[in-house]
Amino acid sequence: MPEQDDDEREFDIRWADNAEHKEPSARARMLAARWKENPPAPQPFRAAPGRAGPRRSSWVSTVIVFGCMAGLIALIGYLNYRSTY
Questions:
Q1: How many other β-carbons are positioned within 10 Å of the β-carbon of residue 31?
Q2: How many whole angstroms separate alpha carbon 31 and alpha carbon 45?
């Protein structure tokens, strides 16, 4: 059989998309088999409303992150300073 060019061997996605039968993925087959015996309970689209806790502004979170980073950098610098003397 003659060797084919790389262009001819390349997978043609249009050919695959036009296939008449598309096999489901292994996960889809596993879930279909599991749900056939034991269907899942209906789930609400959103969680039940309730108190989620206090919300902080994004600035507070940003200040906390940068403050921790600055403290860590200062601690590493201090430890390096002490180890050189």
A1: 13
A2: 20
Amino acid present at 68: C
Q: Which residue has the tokens 């860590």?
A: 72
Domain boundaries, the chain: 57-85
Q: What is the pLDDT of residues 4-13, one digit of tens each?
A: 565 555 667 7
- E strand residue ranges, 1-85: none
pTM for the structure as a whole: 0.35
CA angle at 57 for the pair 53 and 59, rounded to the nearest 5°: 145
Give the residue, 82 or 15, on which the prediction is more confident.
82
C-alpha torsion 72→74→77→83, nearest 10: -90
Cα 53 to the chain's mean position, in Å? 25
Question: In angstroms, rounded to a whole number, what is the distance separating the alpha carbons of residues 32 and 23?
Answer: 13
